[in-house]
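Moderator note: this is an archived Q&A kept for reference. The question asked for a predicted structure of one protein chain; the sequence and the answer are reproduced below.
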Amino acid sequence: MTFAATAIAMAMNTPGFFEAPHPLRLTTCYGGAIIEDKTGKLLWGRDPNTPRYPASTTKILTTLLLLEKCDPEDVVVAPPEIQKIGEASMHLQPGEGVKVKNMAYALMLRSANDGCYAVAKHISGSATAFANLMNTRAAEIGCKNTNFVTPNGLHSPTHATTPLDLCLIAREAMQREDFREIARTKVKVIERSKNFGDRRMQSKNKFLWSDPTADGIKTGFTNPAGHTYVGSATRDGMRVIDSLMYAPKWKDDHKQMLDWAFSEYEVKVVMPKGAVPKEMVANAGLQCPVELRETAYACVHRSGDLVESSIEVSQGQRPFKTGDRVGSLVIRDKDKFVQNLPLHATSDEPALSIVSNSVRKFGTTSALFGLGGLSLVGIVVGAALLRGRKLAQSEPTSF
């Protein structure tokens, strides 16, 4: 997917402040988004689906691919043309070798443009082929409006992504412990085969020093992009990831965004991983026990939300066998945010005399979050969804 340079330029000069009164309405970012980590729920956005220039926040995906595609002990060798890379902040020399485990710190802490180019050549043979890999991976993550052209975010008219897509990429990266360790590191002394006097990599993320709850992630700046930032913080077990694009006062914006998100929302357990309640399984028309292989969470307003969960049975051949995916646990909240978590059979289902091959929805469970935690209200069929402010990821405007 390509983006017209003129369209992006227009977006860069349109703040998008036509929004209802909101505690974050005075933030300066032209584009922004906040998501909750466990669920991926979008909590707030300003033009969250409008493509803009990401600058060095691009390096989040480059580092993720480096960690995914390479062994930590692999050596990335700088190609002969390495010193032609603009703003070569790592000062790599031709033929210099750096292990993957050290290069990842250089990309994220020093924001090494030359290091990104060396990584692109190491993994894909060229920066163009690596950009294709970046776009494929971004699409797998769920990015809808992203087109990467460079591995480092140096300006290109068609190199663009959105605030929401940046948050989704960061969320994917933060699933990895090795990436989380890098993102929260302030200073790292690396090993390299040349230029031994330049081994100290220091993070440009000032929030790692000023906010004890901060655990990443990446700053960025070019003249066309302005200040960009992707941040992460964890408080009371809840992680929030935000992104800011073209943000003149990005530090103030980030602090306001985090404080608002943590004051407005909390994370609750809808269902622990393991066996699904028998009553819910029976009401869904299933005749075998099923399990949820990950804990189901909901990100809800602190004022208390009603969350509805139901089982949606998969189409396909019945009866199910042990290990088969039988369907999904579908969770809907007040903001109409929907999650679909896979359910699997833990034993064979007996032969059924009548089996419908159509998708069946049964056993909607309403759960009320209060001060005492999770309280099941009852099991109903076809319960109506609560009315609430729509917060869908597809909305292109501010809220």
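Archived answer notes: The longest strand covers residues 360-370.
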